[in-house]
Design goal:
Helix content: over 70%
Shape: flat
Largest sheet: none
Mean pLDDT: 87
Number of helices: 4
Order of helices and strands: HHHH
Distance between the termini: 34 Å
Number of strands: 0
Radius of gyration: 16 Å
């Protein structure tokens, strides 16, 4: 039984990931540790950016809240 794909969300996910990658590679600092920290922080913020941009459906957000409550 094939699963239906939501192509709009897949394209949104790939496009935003490429944007995060582009900004991450543009972050340059003279200190390599500072550059590593900035790029790492930028990459970790990706899921939060997806939530703020409305990527997740309401039922997915409810599930995330339930899962977060169990941690």
């Amino acid at each position: 039984l094939p699963l239906p794909y939501d192509y709009r969300r897949i394209v949104w996910l790939i496009t935003s990931a490429l944007g995060v990658y582009a900004v991450g590679t543009a972050l340059t600092f003279s200190n390599p540790w500072l550059e590593l920290a900035a790029r790492g922080l930028w990459a970790v913020s990706y899921p939060a950016m997806l939530l703020l941009m409305g990527f997740a459906r309401p039922e997915e957000i409810t599930l995330l809240k339930q899962m977060w409550g169990k941690i």
